[in-house]
Amino acid sequence: MTTANLNLSRRAVLGGAAALPLVAAAGTPALAAGHGGGAAMPVARSFKLGEMTVTTLLDGSILRDGAKGIFGGNATDEQFAEVSAQNFISAEQAQFYFTPTLVDTGSALVLFDTGLGRGGVVTALAAAGVTPDQIDVVVITHMHPDHIGGLMTDGAPTFPNARYVTGAQEYNFWSKMEAGNRVGDLVASNVTPLAEKTEFIEDGASVAPGVTAMAAFGHTPGHMVYHLESGDRRLVLTADLANHYVWSFAHPEWIVSFDSDKEAATASRRKVLGMLAADRVPMIGYHMPFPAAGFVETRGEGFRFVPVSYQLMG
């Protein structure tokens, strides 16, 4: 796959990083709040993809105010309210989900992203019958804190027997940050200590049999999505390509505050979502409503996310 030449300025990237969800100020993400009574949400859901087993892991969930400022930076208040009302959601608030994915390829257990670092991903792995020491490969799609927070626990690797994979362009950017940058500091403490065990990859690299990296720059300088294929089945882990299941699909051009290069992020959304819709390939998105899996259809000049029901059960 060829990748467009994307100009990502340091100022734009740092601006996007500053707009990340302020989960640290909100305490441990509540799994039960807003989801009915006192019953907690399930934290693991498995799907079959040919000979692979794909399990989504709910690391946490949190409600945030100011939805339009986050997901509709260049939409009018009227446009944002109309799309929200059409989809039965509030235009004022958004529920955030944080969903790493575990892929059992048959020969390796591959974990994509590690969550916020509050133990949620380890709890979800336990619900799936997996312990951290069983993970063979940890893939980091990009280096925002909600993806690398769980790499370390009390200063030691959470996944002690794993090798690590991440984009070279992503690491090269964040690892050069001066001290005091929120993301750069976390990369220094959580990623750099693992550098000797890390493979730094480019677009099109194979992570494991049937798992291929695809550049989707814009959200961050080296943001990657991952294509899974087993037998005649395909699925794409879209990471943070689209951060909300309604607004970012219906209007891929609407500015998302977390995206470092807004134009490049829009181009990546349109390219990947267009491919998923045209080829009818399912996806798992890191911030989609749990269990985070679904399909994409073209709707007008944008797209619609269609959550899975039983399509990936066998």
List the defining traits of the structure above.
314 residues; alpha+beta; Metallo-beta-lactamase, Chain A; seven-stranded mixed β-sheet; disordered N terminus
3D architecture notes:
With 314 residues, the protein is of the alpha+beta class. The protein is 24% helix and 28% strand. The protein has a seven-stranded mixed β-sheet. A seven-stranded mixed β-sheet has the order 12-13-14-15-16-17-18. A hairpin with a 7-residue loop joins β16 and β17.
Summarize the entry for a quick read.
The chain is α+β, with helices and mostly antiparallel strands. It has helices at residues 10-18, 67-71, 77-86, 120-127, 145-148, 168-174, 182-190, 247-250, 262-279; strands at 44-49, 52-57, 60-65, 93-98, 101-104, 109-112, 137-140, 152-153, 156-157, 163-167, 198-201, 206-208, 211-215, 224-230, 233-239, 283-285, 293-299, 302-307.
List the helices and strands and how they pair.
Layout: H1 10-18, E1 44-49, E2 52-57, E3 60-65, H2 67-71, H3 77-86, E4 93-98, E5 101-104, E6 109-112, H4 120-127, E7 137-140, H5 145-148, E8 152-153, E9 156-157, E10 163-167, H6 168-174, H7 182-190, E11 198-201, E12 206-208, E13 211-215, E14 224-230, E15 233-239, H8 247-250, H9 262-279, E16 283-285, E17 293-299, E18 302-307
Parallel strand pairs: 6-7, 7-10, 10-11, 15-16
Antiparallel strand pairs: 1-2, 2-5, 3-4, 5-6, 8-9, 12-13, 13-14, 14-15, 16-17, 17-18
What's the helix count? 9
Shape: globular
Largest sheet: 7 strands, mixed
CATH third-level topology? Metallo-beta-lactamase, Chain A
CATH hierarchy, class? Alpha Beta
Q: Helix- and strand-based class?
A: alpha+beta
How many individual domains?
1
Please name the fourth-level CATH homologous superfamily. Ribonuclease Z/Hydroxyacylglutathione hydrolase-like
Kindly state the percentage of residues in helix.
10-25%
Strands, total number: 18
Radius of gyration: 18 Å
The side-by-side strand order for the widest beta sheet comes to: 1-2-5-6-7-10-11
Order of helices and strands: HEEEHHEEEHEHEEEHHEEEEEHHEEE
